[in-house]
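[step 3/7] fold_predict: job queued, chain A
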Amino acid sequence: MNKPDSQIHKLIDRMTCSDRSFAIYRLPWTDIPILVMQDGGENHIFTNLKELNGQKGFVVSPFHFTDGHPGVIIRPDITASGWEEIEEKISSVAIDEQLSGYSPSSVTPQTESDLKKSYIETFSRFISPLKSKTFSKLVLSRSAEHVLKDDFSPLEAFITACNSYPRMMISLSHTPVSGTWIGSTPEIILSGEGGTWNTVALAGTMPMQGEVIPTEWHKKEQDEQAFVSEYINKVIKKFSSKISVKGPYTARAGQLVHLRTDFQFGLKKTSELGNLLDTLHPTPAVCGLPKDKAYDFIIENEGYDRKYYSGIIGWLDPDGHTTLYVNLRCLNVNGNYTTLYAGGGILPSSDANSEWEETQHKMKTMRKCLENS
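[step 4/7] structure written:
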Protein backbone atom coordinates (compact mmCIF):
# COMPACT_ATOMS: atom_id res chain seq x y z
CA MET A 1 0.00 0.00 0.00
CA ASN A 2 1.30 3.45 -0.92
CA LYS A 3 1.41 6.33 1.55
CA PRO A 4 -0.82 9.39 1.28
CA ASP A 5 0.50 12.91 0.86
CA SER A 6 2.70 13.91 3.83
CA GLN A 7 0.31 16.69 4.85
CA ILE A 8 -2.63 14.25 5.01
CA HIS A 9 -0.41 11.72 6.76
CA LYS A 10 0.35 14.23 9.53
CA LEU A 11 -3.31 15.26 9.73
CA ILE A 12 -4.46 11.67 10.29
CA ASP A 13 -1.82 11.21 13.00
CA ARG A 14 -3.03 14.41 14.70
CA MET A 15 -6.60 13.13 14.52
CA THR A 16 -5.60 10.25 16.83
CA CYS A 17 -4.97 12.86 19.54
CA SER A 18 -8.17 14.83 18.97
CA ASP A 19 -11.90 14.66 19.66
CA ARG A 20 -12.45 13.37 16.11
CA SER A 21 -13.93 9.88 15.77
CA PHE A 22 -12.75 7.96 12.73
CA ALA A 23 -11.56 4.63 11.42
CA ILE A 24 -9.37 3.70 8.47
CA TYR A 25 -9.40 0.03 7.54
CA ARG A 26 -8.34 -2.31 4.76
CA LEU A 27 -10.03 -5.61 3.99
CA PRO A 28 -8.04 -8.81 3.26
CA TRP A 29 -6.54 -9.22 -0.21
CA THR A 30 -7.22 -5.60 -1.16
CA ASP A 31 -4.98 -2.55 -1.33
CA ILE A 32 -7.69 0.06 -0.74
CA PRO A 33 -7.93 2.04 2.53
CA ILE A 34 -11.49 2.90 3.58
CA LEU A 35 -12.32 5.91 5.78
CA VAL A 36 -15.32 6.24 8.10
CA MET A 37 -15.51 9.50 10.06
CA GLN A 38 -17.97 11.42 12.18
CA ASP A 39 -18.49 15.08 11.40
CA GLY A 40 -18.48 16.13 15.04
CA GLY A 41 -20.91 15.26 17.82
CA GLU A 42 -20.81 12.53 20.42
CA ASN A 43 -20.41 8.87 19.60
CA HIS A 44 -23.32 6.46 19.67
CA ILE A 45 -22.67 4.36 22.77
CA PHE A 46 -24.12 0.89 23.37
CA THR A 47 -23.92 -1.43 26.35
CA ASN A 48 -25.23 -4.63 24.76
CA LEU A 49 -24.68 -6.13 21.32
CA LYS A 50 -28.44 -6.45 20.82
CA GLU A 51 -28.48 -2.64 20.65
CA LEU A 52 -26.72 -2.96 17.28
CA ASN A 53 -29.99 -4.09 15.68
CA GLY A 54 -30.71 -1.72 12.79
CA GLN A 55 -27.53 0.33 13.35
CA LYS A 56 -25.02 1.37 10.67
CA GLY A 57 -21.42 2.51 11.11
CA PHE A 58 -17.96 1.42 12.22
CA VAL A 59 -18.21 -0.66 15.39
CA VAL A 60 -15.65 -0.79 18.21
CA SER A 61 -16.97 -3.15 20.88
CA PRO A 62 -15.21 -4.53 24.00
CA PHE A 63 -14.74 -8.09 25.17
CA HIS A 64 -16.60 -7.17 28.36
CA PHE A 65 -18.92 -4.15 28.62
CA THR A 66 -18.10 -1.79 31.49
CA ASP A 67 -18.85 1.87 32.25
CA GLY A 68 -15.30 2.71 31.20
CA HIS A 69 -15.35 0.57 28.07
CA PRO A 70 -18.73 0.63 26.34
CA GLY A 71 -19.35 -0.20 22.70
CA VAL A 72 -18.93 2.67 20.23
CA ILE A 73 -20.36 3.27 16.76
CA ILE A 74 -18.56 5.76 14.53
CA ARG A 75 -21.26 7.39 12.40
CA PRO A 76 -20.48 7.36 8.66
CA ASP A 77 -20.98 11.12 8.16
CA ILE A 78 -17.90 11.13 5.93
CA THR A 79 -16.79 8.07 3.98
CA ALA A 80 -14.11 7.62 1.34
CA SER A 81 -12.26 4.84 -0.47
CA GLY A 82 -8.62 5.09 -1.59
CA TRP A 83 -6.04 7.71 -0.55
CA GLU A 84 -7.03 10.15 -3.29
CA GLU A 85 -10.65 10.31 -2.15
CA ILE A 86 -9.65 10.26 1.53
CA GLU A 87 -7.35 13.25 0.94
CA GLU A 88 -10.16 15.07 -0.84
CA LYS A 89 -12.62 14.44 2.00
CA ILE A 90 -10.39 15.34 4.95
CA SER A 91 -8.00 17.96 3.56
CA SER A 92 -10.15 20.74 5.01
CA VAL A 93 -10.90 19.02 8.33
CA ALA A 94 -10.27 21.29 11.28
CA ILE A 95 -8.58 19.70 14.28
CA ASP A 96 -9.31 21.33 17.61
CA GLU A 97 -6.07 22.64 19.10
CA GLN A 98 -7.39 21.62 22.51
CA LEU A 99 -6.46 17.99 21.97
CA SER A 100 -8.07 15.17 23.91
CA GLY A 101 -4.93 13.07 23.56
CA TYR A 102 -3.11 11.43 26.40
CA SER A 103 -0.44 13.20 28.43
CA PRO A 104 3.09 11.81 28.33
CA SER A 105 3.57 8.85 30.65
CA SER A 106 6.56 7.62 32.60
CA VAL A 107 5.56 3.98 32.16
CA THR A 108 8.40 1.51 32.55
CA PRO A 109 7.52 -1.75 30.78
CA GLN A 110 7.90 -4.93 32.79
CA THR A 111 10.80 -7.18 31.88
CA GLU A 112 10.07 -10.31 29.88
CA SER A 113 10.95 -12.49 32.88
CA ASP A 114 8.44 -10.61 35.08
CA LEU A 115 5.76 -10.87 32.40
CA LYS A 116 6.37 -14.59 32.03
CA LYS A 117 6.30 -15.15 35.80
CA SER A 118 2.94 -13.36 36.03
CA TYR A 119 1.60 -15.33 33.07
CA ILE A 120 2.59 -18.69 34.57
CA GLU A 121 0.94 -17.76 37.88
CA THR A 122 -2.28 -16.93 36.03
CA PHE A 123 -1.94 -20.10 33.92
CA SER A 124 -1.97 -22.16 37.13
CA ARG A 125 -5.34 -20.64 38.07
CA PHE A 126 -6.70 -21.57 34.64
CA ILE A 127 -5.36 -25.12 34.34
CA SER A 128 -6.79 -26.35 37.66
CA PRO A 129 -10.50 -26.07 36.74
CA LEU A 130 -9.70 -27.53 33.31
CA LYS A 131 -8.12 -30.63 34.84
CA SER A 132 -11.08 -30.97 37.21
CA LYS A 133 -13.35 -30.80 34.13
CA THR A 134 -15.19 -27.66 35.28
CA PHE A 135 -14.34 -26.30 31.83
CA SER A 136 -13.46 -28.03 28.57
CA LYS A 137 -11.57 -24.94 27.32
CA LEU A 138 -10.47 -21.53 28.63
CA VAL A 139 -8.72 -18.70 26.78
CA LEU A 140 -5.92 -16.99 28.68
CA SER A 141 -4.66 -13.66 27.35
CA ARG A 142 -2.15 -11.10 28.53
CA SER A 143 -0.87 -7.62 27.73
CA ALA A 144 2.58 -6.05 27.44
CA GLU A 145 3.59 -2.39 27.34
CA HIS A 146 5.98 -0.99 24.76
CA VAL A 147 7.55 2.49 24.80
CA LEU A 148 7.06 4.27 21.48
CA LYS A 149 9.68 6.17 19.52
CA ASP A 150 9.38 9.96 19.68
CA ASP A 151 8.45 10.10 16.01
CA PHE A 152 5.96 7.21 16.13
CA SER A 153 3.24 7.51 13.49
CA PRO A 154 -0.04 5.58 13.95
CA LEU A 155 -0.75 5.81 10.22
CA GLU A 156 2.74 4.51 9.39
CA ALA A 157 2.06 1.50 11.64
CA PHE A 158 -1.26 0.93 9.85
CA ILE A 159 0.42 1.06 6.42
CA THR A 160 3.20 -1.28 7.59
CA ALA A 161 0.58 -3.77 8.77
CA CYS A 162 -1.25 -3.51 5.43
CA ASN A 163 1.93 -4.27 3.52
CA SER A 164 3.03 -7.05 5.90
CA TYR A 165 -0.24 -8.92 6.31
CA PRO A 166 -2.30 -9.07 3.09
CA ARG A 167 -4.51 -11.89 4.45
CA MET A 168 -5.78 -9.88 7.42
CA MET A 169 -8.21 -7.05 8.09
CA ILE A 170 -6.11 -4.06 9.18
CA SER A 171 -7.63 -1.19 11.16
CA LEU A 172 -6.72 2.14 12.74
CA SER A 173 -9.58 3.50 14.83
CA HIS A 174 -9.88 6.41 17.23
CA THR A 175 -12.69 7.82 19.37
CA PRO A 176 -12.55 9.90 22.57
CA VAL A 177 -14.37 6.98 24.25
CA SER A 178 -12.33 3.96 23.13
CA GLY A 179 -8.96 5.60 22.44
CA THR A 180 -6.64 4.69 19.57
CA TRP A 181 -6.38 1.08 18.40
CA ILE A 182 -4.38 -0.52 15.60
CA GLY A 183 -5.05 -4.12 14.69
CA SER A 184 -4.35 -6.91 12.24
CA THR A 185 -6.95 -9.66 12.59
CA PRO A 186 -7.64 -12.84 10.62
CA GLU A 187 -10.92 -13.75 12.34
CA ILE A 188 -14.31 -12.85 10.86
CA ILE A 189 -17.19 -12.91 13.33
CA LEU A 190 -19.85 -11.86 10.80
CA SER A 191 -19.76 -10.79 7.16
CA GLY A 192 -22.20 -10.76 4.28
CA GLU A 193 -25.26 -9.03 2.93
CA GLY A 194 -28.84 -9.78 1.96
CA GLY A 195 -29.56 -13.47 2.45
CA THR A 196 -25.97 -14.78 2.47
CA TRP A 197 -23.74 -14.54 5.56
CA ASN A 198 -20.43 -15.92 6.80
CA THR A 199 -18.52 -16.58 9.98
CA VAL A 200 -15.45 -18.66 10.85
CA ALA A 201 -14.11 -20.89 13.60
CA LEU A 202 -10.42 -20.07 14.06
CA ALA A 203 -8.49 -21.97 16.71
CA GLY A 204 -5.19 -23.77 17.03
CA THR A 205 -1.93 -21.94 16.29
CA MET A 206 1.52 -22.84 14.95
CA PRO A 207 4.38 -20.62 13.73
CA MET A 208 5.34 -20.67 10.06
CA GLN A 209 8.44 -22.71 9.17
CA GLY A 210 10.14 -20.04 7.09
CA GLU A 211 7.78 -19.75 4.13
CA VAL A 212 6.57 -23.34 4.49
CA ILE A 213 3.05 -23.77 5.88
CA PRO A 214 3.02 -26.57 8.50
CA THR A 215 0.03 -28.93 8.29
CA GLU A 216 0.68 -31.55 10.99
CA TRP A 217 -1.56 -30.57 13.89
CA HIS A 218 -1.36 -32.00 17.40
CA LYS A 219 -4.47 -33.34 19.11
CA LYS A 220 -4.60 -30.29 21.41
CA GLU A 221 -5.07 -27.89 18.45
CA GLN A 222 -7.52 -30.25 16.73
CA ASP A 223 -9.63 -30.49 19.89
CA GLU A 224 -9.54 -26.71 20.34
CA GLN A 225 -10.77 -26.18 16.77
CA ALA A 226 -13.53 -28.79 17.24
CA PHE A 227 -14.85 -27.03 20.37
CA VAL A 228 -15.11 -23.70 18.55
CA SER A 229 -16.68 -25.20 15.40
CA GLU A 230 -19.31 -27.15 17.32
CA TYR A 231 -20.31 -24.06 19.28
CA ILE A 232 -20.61 -21.83 16.21
CA ASN A 233 -22.62 -24.48 14.36
CA LYS A 234 -25.11 -24.67 17.25
CA VAL A 235 -25.46 -20.87 17.37
CA ILE A 236 -26.07 -20.51 13.63
CA LYS A 237 -28.77 -23.21 13.72
CA LYS A 238 -30.80 -20.92 16.01
CA PHE A 239 -30.91 -18.31 13.24
CA SER A 240 -30.71 -20.30 10.00
CA SER A 241 -31.62 -23.70 8.58
CA LYS A 242 -29.38 -23.27 5.52
CA ILE A 243 -25.78 -23.86 6.59
CA SER A 244 -22.76 -25.03 4.58
CA VAL A 245 -19.45 -25.87 6.25
CA LYS A 246 -15.93 -25.97 4.80
CA GLY A 247 -13.02 -27.26 6.86
CA PRO A 248 -11.17 -27.50 9.07
CA TYR A 249 -8.15 -26.51 6.98
CA THR A 250 -4.83 -24.78 7.61
CA ALA A 251 -4.92 -21.01 7.03
CA ARG A 252 -1.99 -18.62 7.17
CA ALA A 253 -2.12 -15.37 9.16
CA GLY A 254 1.15 -13.47 8.93
CA GLN A 255 3.92 -15.67 10.37
CA LEU A 256 1.37 -17.95 12.05
CA VAL A 257 -1.06 -20.58 10.83
CA HIS A 258 -4.41 -21.57 12.33
CA LEU A 259 -6.99 -24.28 11.89
CA ARG A 260 -10.01 -22.69 10.25
CA THR A 261 -13.56 -23.74 9.43
CA ASP A 262 -15.81 -21.56 7.25
CA PHE A 263 -19.57 -21.33 7.75
CA GLN A 264 -21.98 -19.88 5.18
CA PHE A 265 -25.64 -19.48 6.09
CA GLY A 266 -28.83 -17.69 5.18
CA LEU A 267 -30.62 -14.97 7.18
CA LYS A 268 -34.16 -13.73 6.74
CA LYS A 269 -33.94 -10.68 9.05
CA THR A 270 -30.88 -8.48 8.60
CA SER A 271 -32.47 -5.92 10.92
CA GLU A 272 -31.59 -8.20 13.86
CA LEU A 273 -27.86 -8.70 13.31
CA GLY A 274 -27.27 -7.50 16.87
CA ASN A 275 -29.15 -10.50 18.23
CA LEU A 276 -26.90 -12.86 16.25
CA LEU A 277 -23.74 -11.06 17.36
CA ASP A 278 -24.90 -11.16 20.97
CA THR A 279 -25.22 -14.94 20.73
CA LEU A 280 -21.95 -15.48 18.84
CA HIS A 281 -19.77 -13.24 21.01
CA PRO A 282 -17.56 -14.19 22.67
CA THR A 283 -16.86 -17.36 20.71
CA PRO A 284 -14.88 -20.14 22.41
CA ALA A 285 -11.90 -18.95 20.32
CA VAL A 286 -11.52 -15.97 22.70
CA CYS A 287 -13.44 -17.22 25.75
CA GLY A 288 -14.01 -20.91 26.48
CA LEU A 289 -16.63 -23.57 27.18
CA PRO A 290 -19.16 -23.63 28.72
CA LYS A 291 -19.33 -20.09 27.41
CA ASP A 292 -21.13 -18.16 30.17
CA LYS A 293 -19.17 -19.76 33.01
CA ALA A 294 -15.89 -19.36 31.13
CA TYR A 295 -16.66 -15.69 30.43
CA ASP A 296 -17.27 -15.00 34.15
CA PHE A 297 -14.17 -16.97 35.14
CA ILE A 298 -11.94 -14.98 32.76
CA ILE A 299 -13.22 -11.63 34.02
CA GLU A 300 -12.60 -12.68 37.63
CA ASN A 301 -9.27 -14.49 37.20
CA GLU A 302 -7.35 -13.19 34.20
CA GLY A 303 -5.93 -10.34 36.25
CA TYR A 304 -6.38 -7.42 33.87
CA ASP A 305 -8.99 -5.69 31.66
CA ARG A 306 -8.92 -6.78 28.01
CA LYS A 307 -10.72 -3.55 27.03
CA TYR A 308 -11.37 -3.78 23.27
CA TYR A 309 -9.00 -6.67 22.65
CA SER A 310 -10.98 -9.78 21.58
CA GLY A 311 -14.08 -7.62 21.14
CA ILE A 312 -15.67 -6.80 17.78
CA ILE A 313 -14.40 -4.29 15.22
CA GLY A 314 -15.47 -3.36 11.70
CA TRP A 315 -18.20 -2.13 9.39
CA LEU A 316 -21.89 -2.82 10.13
CA ASP A 317 -24.66 -2.17 7.59
CA PRO A 318 -27.86 -4.25 7.78
CA ASP A 319 -28.99 -2.90 4.40
CA GLY A 320 -25.63 -3.30 2.66
CA HIS A 321 -22.42 -5.27 3.15
CA THR A 322 -21.19 -6.02 6.70
CA THR A 323 -17.58 -6.95 7.58
CA LEU A 324 -17.12 -7.46 11.32
CA TYR A 325 -14.03 -9.07 12.86
CA VAL A 326 -12.77 -10.22 16.26
CA ASN A 327 -10.23 -7.62 17.40
CA LEU A 328 -7.08 -9.77 17.62
CA ARG A 329 -3.35 -9.00 17.10
CA CYS A 330 -4.01 -5.45 18.27
CA LEU A 331 -2.50 -2.64 20.30
CA ASN A 332 -3.81 0.40 22.16
CA VAL A 333 -1.82 3.65 21.77
CA ASN A 334 -1.70 5.74 24.93
CA GLY A 335 0.57 8.79 24.79
CA ASN A 336 4.20 7.73 24.40
CA TYR A 337 3.60 4.03 24.97
CA THR A 338 1.36 1.29 23.66
CA THR A 339 -0.19 -1.86 25.10
CA LEU A 340 -0.09 -5.04 23.04
CA TYR A 341 -2.46 -7.98 23.55
CA ALA A 342 -2.39 -11.70 22.79
CA GLY A 343 -3.96 -14.90 24.05
CA GLY A 344 -4.47 -18.58 23.39
CA GLY A 345 -6.76 -21.47 24.12
CA ILE A 346 -5.97 -23.57 27.20
CA LEU A 347 -6.99 -27.25 27.44
CA PRO A 348 -6.26 -29.78 30.22
CA SER A 349 -3.26 -30.98 28.17
CA SER A 350 -1.76 -27.47 27.76
CA ASP A 351 1.76 -26.59 28.85
CA ALA A 352 2.49 -23.16 30.36
CA ASN A 353 5.77 -22.59 28.51
CA SER A 354 4.29 -23.56 25.14
CA GLU A 355 1.31 -21.27 25.67
CA TRP A 356 3.60 -18.39 26.67
CA GLU A 357 5.57 -18.86 23.46
CA GLU A 358 2.33 -18.77 21.46
CA THR A 359 1.48 -15.33 22.91
CA GLN A 360 5.02 -14.19 22.09
CA HIS A 361 4.56 -15.23 18.46
CA LYS A 362 1.21 -13.44 18.28
CA MET A 363 2.58 -10.21 19.74
CA LYS A 364 5.32 -10.20 17.11
CA THR A 365 2.61 -9.44 14.55
CA MET A 366 2.17 -5.89 15.84
CA ARG A 367 5.68 -5.43 17.30
CA LYS A 368 6.94 -5.62 13.73
CA CYS A 369 4.68 -2.70 12.82
CA LEU A 370 5.96 -0.63 15.75
CA GLU A 371 9.59 -1.25 14.87
CA ASN A 372 9.04 -0.04 11.30
CA SER A 373 6.87 3.00 12.11
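[step 5/7] annotate
The longest helix spans residues 112-131.
The helical segments are 6-15, 83-90, 112-131, 154-164, 219-237, 273-280, 291-301, 352-371.
exit 0
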